[in-house]
Amino acid sequence: MTVHHNAIKIWQFDQKQKKLKYFDCPLGHIKRYILNISIDSIDESAYCGTRSGDILEISLSKGIYKRSGPVDKKFGGAVNQIISEFKHLYVATQDGTIARLDKKSLLIVGQTNFVNQGMSGLAASKSKLYMISDKGQVRSVPETADLKHTSVFMNGHFDEINSL
User: Fold this and answer.
1) Could you tell me which residues come within 8 angstroms of residue 8 by beta carbon, excluding any fewer than 6 positions away?
2) CA 144 → CA 15, 97, 110, distances in Å?
3) 161: pLDDT strictly greater than 80
4) Peptide bond into 26 cis (omega under 30)
5) pLDDT per position as a tens digit, 121-134
6) Residue 164 has what pLDDT?
7) Extents of the domains making up the chain
8) Are 118 and 94 in contact, with CB atoms under 8 Å apart?
9) How confident is the model at residue 13 (pLDDT cuts 50, 70, 90)?
10) 3-class state of residue 120 by DSSP
11) Which of 70, 154, 85 has its CA nearest to residue 123?
12) CATH superfamily, domain at 2-155
């Protein structure tokens, strides 16, 4: 699967012709600049983060747009990264918001905001979520804890960390 401005392509390998083929996922009237993608662990759905602060859910089995969220409101900044881990979606935004969304409803079930720190990335282990700020700080929180109870995991970079 690849994403870019206003387009989502789903790729398949044709074994007979030994070639990669793609088809465009129809988005209908939705016009979004798509920044990133996360595919759930059972390859059923893909979640695309947009520059306008919302998330598009795509059905991989049918290759179609399902819905967008969060249902209650868009995020204030661009969605820099999405992680589909555990039973939730975790979202890092440009305005410093880290949010936990329920996958079934796409409702925000927890969030916190780090003032003056854009969140540039997320990473997850078996039991923890790691948040990367554009100020070079890495924070961690157990998967079951409230997102407001983060602790500084690493501090000492003087520039943006792009990946963990």
Assistant:
1) 1, 2, 24, 25, 27, 34, 46, 48, 56, 58
2) 43, 18, 11
3) no
4) no
5) 888 888 888 887 77
6) 56
7) 2-155
8) yes
9) very high
10) strand
11) 85
12) YVTN repeat-like/Quinoprotein amine dehydrogenase (2.130.10.10)
